[in-house]
Amino acid sequence: MIETDSSTRPRSVLRDGRFLRLWVGTTASGLATWALPFVLGLAVFEGALDAVGLGVVLATRTVGFLLAVPLAGVLADRYARRPVVAVAGLAAALATPLIAYGLGRSVLLMAVAAAVAGAGQGACRPAFQALTAEVVDEPRRQSANVMTTLAVRVTTLVGPTLAALLAVVAGVRVTLLVVAALWLAAALIPPGGAPVSTRSARRDSIWREFGDGLREARRHPWFVAGLGALTAVILTGYSVTGVALPLVSRDRYGSEAVLASAATAYVVGALIGALLLARWRPSTQGRWALAGLAVYGFAPLALLLPVPPAVVVAAYVMAGFGIELFNVPWFTATQREVPPHLLARVSSIDFLFSYGLAPVGLALIAPAIGAFGLAPVLAVCAAVCFAAPALAMLVPSARGFRREPVNPDG
Prior knowledge:
Layout: H1 17-46, H2 51-78, H3 81-102, H4 107-135, H5 141-170, H6 172-188, H7 206-218, H8 221-251, H9 257-277, H10 285-294, H11 298-304, H12 309-337, H13 343-353, H14 358-372, H15 374-392
Helix pairs in contact: 1-4, 1-5, 1-6, 2-3, 2-4, 2-7, 2-13, 3-4, 3-6, 4-13, 5-6, 5-9, 5-12, 7-13, 8-10, 8-14, 8-15, 9-12, 10-12, 10-15, 11-12, 11-15, 14-15
């Protein structure tokens, strides 16, 4: 994955030892983040944990995430990104064995430990995002973000099989210890970034410094518009995938095959999108990114219409392709446009308002289906997924994800 221009050929990120260390750490944290709820689901299947206990543990994990994200954004900008990553990873690494110990003994212990692990997960996200901008120079950041998202998608694709096999062979508790080892790798392997001396000497309260991040975010209309669109799509389209897709797979098609196929198709589509962006650099990247985000609307639309299973699977390939067409330019633009001393805070706002609020959509979608019916909810979700990115595209600077509007013909 090498970027070129008319005069230089920057070194590939694959040959950059510091980036590779960062990539390994980021991948380990992503795999550990994904693995915990899956492994706990296996514990429910084995009877070591009931469904209520699983819900409590996952809820406290989410609370820990939401509380840690803004705090970590401030601390990573105030001090340094590398120590924040180290502390966050070590906290999650120490908490995960306590989850294993509490399994079958104490749901309260598991919930408290899960909150700490969730806080570690939340603290890592903005720090890793900002650390990427420190480790990788601007011309190679899109390639770096592609590499990271490819790792996440591949582990999502093969991770369930590996985790299930490990749980069968060694047990759920041992598998949780492997998750702890992943967090330890995320804490210890990444390289350092910019020296602390380059950061602002100003020290205000945590909330005032977080407010500085909010003000910086508002200075970028493309960021506000894109984040609003992303949040709307996650609250509707993502929630449909989590709640309505299993119902449609069971009730319309009579098996779980469509659910499994659609989930796999989504990851495959995301991989295709990431591979495309390894080489493609559109001049109006914001326009293409928002168009990709709008493609997610085909997922609830396919669930709404009486179509063959293959159409549902194709819709999820398109949704995965589109979300990656958005993600990579979005992260790259944020790293480029936001001043380095505010990047972690702005990134924390991104994660807090988009993926951090995803559980709200998941919590609301089922009652909405019960109150209004499946078809109206799917129709509204599809309309929101199409409309929100289209409205964001009306903001002139959103066409290029830059403060200065980009010529649409450029």
